[in-house]
Batch of 2 targets.
Target 1
Amino acid sequence: MMLHIPGVLSADEVRHLRAQLDAAAWTDGRATVGAAGAHVKRNEQLPEDAPLARELAQYVQQALNRNGLFFSAALPLRMSQPLFNRYDAANAGHYGFHVDGAVRAHAQGPGWLRTDLSATLFLCNPDDYDGGDLTVRDTYGEHEVKLPAGDLVLYPSTSVHCVTPVTRGVRVCSFMWIQSMIRNDGRRTMLFELDQAIQTLRARHGESAELVALTSHYHNLLREWSEI
Ligand code: NI
């Protein structure tokens, strides 16, 4: 499932991040990929262990932690440190078709994170730049994503994807990976849709015995399928 989550950050929060990012020391994004990735990647990143990168990552992480829709859709078990990247038309910034690595170091301690979900949080508006579409391929074809500043897209890390060349302006985003309590995308999608339907029914009709039964099924399925 691919999901657009609006308003993860407010306009003020985006401005706060951008003020610091626009003055930051960016480095070549090819530093963080293997030989295969280096051929197709032309962007800049903040070094993961730079104090500013860690501080801004925490800011993004706190916004994700308070977002109920993100939690419902991702059911996060572990997350990578949110990272930041920049695609500048001056360098023909782009990232060709690739798949994200299946495992990587995670932010909450030693060990590994399995990348079940990839997320991009937009820190610029669509009219700030031309090109720079996140293009995600799945069994239904190719989907092009370019969202307003503060919005996030969540998609399965199994998908082949790219960022098309930026031809005007600069595209600045944060991105991160999530290991979900529910590894299987189909099961995770079912739980998300059930949870959203329950919440909508509760808002529309108030509590009822049927909603308690549905909620019980949601939690019992989560208990059955979760890997924690
Ligand atoms: Ni990627």
Target 2
Amino acid sequence: MTQRKIIHIDMDAFYASVEQRDHPEYRGRPIAVGHDGPRGVVATASYEARPYGVRSAISSALAKRLCPNLIFVPARFDVYKEVSRQIRAVFRDYTELVEPLSLDEAFLDVTHLRSATLAAREIKARILAETGLTASAGISVNKMLAKIASDYRKPDGLFTIPPGQIEEFVAALPIERFFGIGEVTARKMHGMGIHTGADLRLRDEAELVRHFGKAGHSYYGYARGIDEREVTPNRIRKSLGAETTFAEDTDDREQLRLELSAVREEVWNRLMRHEFKGKTVVLKLKFDNFRQITRSKTLFAPVNSAETLRQVSEELLAADPPDRPYGRQFARSLHRVRAAAIRFRGIRPERLNDFSHDRRQHGKGKDDNCLKRDRLWGAKPLPDHRVFSNLREISQAPRTGRTIARRRVAA
Ligand code: TTP
Ligand code: MG
């Protein structure tokens, strides 16, 4: 089998660089893209702001504390999308096999070219000429290594991991830097004493599978610099979301509403960044007794404005009667909310009709209760009534793995 040649390209401080390009007065200054309100979230920060610790997804309030001179600039997603279109056009001059991961990054399979490193150099130069912005490139034999390499010399970097150096490179790599090992898995690995690629390499495959399920096979490969994932154009993302764990558990609705507005802003940023089209909005609340409830609502068309997202998520949050605080129906006593999440799901048409199953499984009585409560306290429809409402609650007791689901359809 011929060895693949993979390039990963990632724009530097993408939104912030676009703002500095278009507003010369911001050049050389610490800026954050996002809004400055008390619940605002930073989408990204310019390289001048990063030494202060300002980075993506922290709150604007914290960012201002870290860097008092920080300038907040509102996001202009249309402009970022236009730049994204320009860079993707450049990529396609080199290969059909382009897999965008978000507006500002993509994998390219250039196995057919003589030198991937030369191609990457050219791509960077063309991006700069056509957009006035810098990108970083990583080059290697698979996606994992290319992605790690592009991060290695940021900003304006270019780094190649040639086949002969893979082993050494991977051995020294901290486990959280592997592409494909997320935050939660990395924490679990730390708990097992696995901190670097070298540590991971010492574990046998069966042990990794025992701890991490099927993914264990992949991790076994990653430790050896092996990653079989192909560059797949038009990959379809199924869902996207954001979650926050509160500094203090709360049962105060107003507090919850405010906390949720920050999660909403972040999830909206992600939606824009991944150009995700989601029709189903899911709200999840986790309680201090480790139970959780999930509610969702499916619209006829993808959510296309931050205002619609605000309405739907507040509606889902308000779906409890005021005299019955969150979770009471699932717990013997009142519990406080520990964490909240909003997710978007892309939904296929056939999924919209699968309610009969739940009805059979959980009995009519429960559904009727649910109906009555929804009529009294149910969510207000959106103004245009173009809403397919799927109010759904799930109580999960993780220790037993038991799931109780209730669903109801309201016109
Ligand atoms: P990244 O490529 O992760 O970050 P970046 O381009 O700003 O900086 P770097 O030089 O380290 O690559 O994300 C690209 C854009 O996506 C970023 O400019 C803003 C947006 N974004 C968010 O809106 N929220 C997020 O949590 C992250 C990580 C990015
Ligand atoms: Mg980037």
